[in-house]
Amino acid sequence: MLKDMKVCTISKYPPYMSGHSFEALYQGKALLEMTGEKHYEVTYDQSVYDKATNYNNSPELMSEAEQYLNVYRMFAGERGNVKVLDGALVKAFVGQVINLIIEKDINVLSTFYLDPHAYIANQAKLYAQVVLGKKVITAHKAVGSDVLNSIANHRTDGEGKFLLLQLLSGDIMLAVSLFTKEKIIEYAQDLLPPHLVEKIALEMKVLYAPFNNTYFLERDEEQLYSFKKKFKIPEDRKIISYIGRLFPEKGVEDLLAAFIIMKQYHPDTLLVIGGHGISLDDLQEYVQEQNIPDVIFTGTVSNSEKRALMQLSYVGVIPTKPVLNFVETLCISALEYQAAAVPLITTRVGGVPEAAGSHSLYSKHSSPVDLAEKIALMFDDKVDRQAMIHSGIEHVKQFNYYTITRTFVQYLEECDRFL
User: In angstroms, how far apart are the furthest CA atoms of the chain?
Assistant: First the structure.
């Protein structure tokens, strides 16, 4: 099937900044390398995104985003029927995917997020079957927001049942982590007949997020120097860092509180917080109110700057915690730190341990005191830092974008034989 495979992915995509938009990017990169041709991505127009959250349209990132896939960016348009209250964006997606099936001979639809992407793919596949008499394979990958928000919050109003139907209507059911699969089964037990719960439990496969682990290990000394110069980082400081979305569930305020404790015993430390999001203003205000020295906020950074910050760090800290219905279901940043040869301290929340492995250090979530103690272990040489680094580099090889996508293609080939 590989030589005849034409894949269209339906998902969020850069400049949207989330792990799953990068899953789509790196799956596209791997497919290009495997087949020698660009495949297809149907995603949202940049105007649809809220630029205050999860957004980074740096030229470097956008150049890479257009390099691997033929990208189609959708918006609701100005020709909507004013008598129709909703659904214009979803219909725009479905129409574009149908046209690609016809014009580009698409025979695989891959989705990240059931809500609404699995529904979009299922409708386009239905058209292909009924109108075109064409076989199209659908592969739906469930992620955190699907399970912990779109299904968990809609167990009584029918929407959760609708989303599980979209999952079951796919030819291949995937979950981004074992934690995600277990949660889907848990909620399916509330909403579905037992034989369908069993079907999900038996047939859903865990396929971890693909990312470019080798990129984070490559060192660019000029980039490292430029980063230190840009953010005025003194040479004599050991860097503790966090980089990612700045949202309440990331626990960055706990890291700031832990840094206050740490600073008493390790005055040569510097805390660098990279990224942006809805918590940025509150975090900066907290630093001012508490008069915390040696804290740098970078704001949005390019991918190469992110790598530079990680490689300059003595330790990376991701103190994620459960907030309302959001729980981290994997954690791409945890993979990136380890790939950059940096030891990681995080929490045993959701699917994070699957990304961080048994060799990383774990703190109690929502506990700045315990987090400070775990960071101190690193600076007091109470743990084997080099062993953690070596284990981390080996651990993340299983998440390599080519390896993960090769497994995905194997699933497609198995499915093709039985359909």
Answer: 71
